Amino acid sequence: MLEHRHDVVVAGGGPTGLAVALGCAQAGLDVVVCEKRPGVIDKACGEGLMPGAVRALGALGIDPPGHPINGITYRQGSTVARAAFRTGPGRGVRRTALHNALRSAVERHGVPILTTTITHVSQRSDHVRADELRARYLVAADGLHSTVRELAGLTKVTTARSAHVPRWGLRRHYALAPSTDTVEVTWAAHSEAYVTPVGPHTIGVAILSSVRGGFTQQLAAFPDLAARIADAEPLTSVRGAGPFRQQTSSRVAGRILLVGDAAGYVDALTGEGLAVSLATAAELVRCIRMNRPTDYERAWKRASRRSRWLTEGLLWARRQPSLARHIVPTAARTPWLFASAIDQLAR
């Protein structure tokens, strides 16, 4: 009996991996997903979908429930800067709701989701093996600390001299009605707090920081926010993620392609990570359909360039004490500049 060969094996069943699988299935490709965690998967993230992410999901036929987001608000002490989205609304969506919507769509298309972990890969001229599976292509969508990226030799080793200060994230939900239809970002000396409306009576609070510590300890840097949620009922336990920065030497190694956080990650500072992941997932599917995997590296760079440049620039300013304290005041003094930056991120 001839061994069955899939068109695509996707390692990782998070939103990006499922988006790739759904795109492949809609294109008529034989695809299978490998994800060791069964059911709906939660993850620490800001949960604010930029307008570009909402449109990308819509192109896949996905319309997850959530709360409209119409812009971004920056706060630092009494200084406030607001910018509205120019290209349509975003949406605050619980990670579990997003994952459930994508997983349900993938299952409706008959895509198998195997509860297995890929521990070995090898390649030939016309196929790749992922443990016992054989396919024309293997897609690594297995997150920040990607196993497949490591197996493919695509993890870029950072020297101590060039290493960046690592940053981590924590997130928790509270039973509290949103006070605004924007994502509120409050800036402190070494961290930022993101408040995202994800339902009519639910907000998500995420804290990104270069200083390690528990949620309560991190929240102390934001006294106004701490007071606001002091009497609110916590709806979820604290989840963490990081360190954020992950560097890769390439997004392509033969028939292995990287996407999402596995493809390299700068920081969650600007909040458009999922939008970029969905855009690059669509490019990956296009390259696979054309049997042109080498085109994907250039397509990934093109689709992610704006985000990478803006995030690197803002993160660099964040690390300069003399500049960091002026980020929000500058945004408030030059609303046209702030609105332009937000418009670039929202696309």
UniProtKB/TrEMBL annotation:
GO terms for molecular function: FAD binding. Residues 6-286 form the FAD-binding domain. This is NAD(P)/FAD-dependent oxidoreductase. Transmembrane segments: none annotated. It holds the Pfam family FAD_binding_3. It comes from the Bacteria.
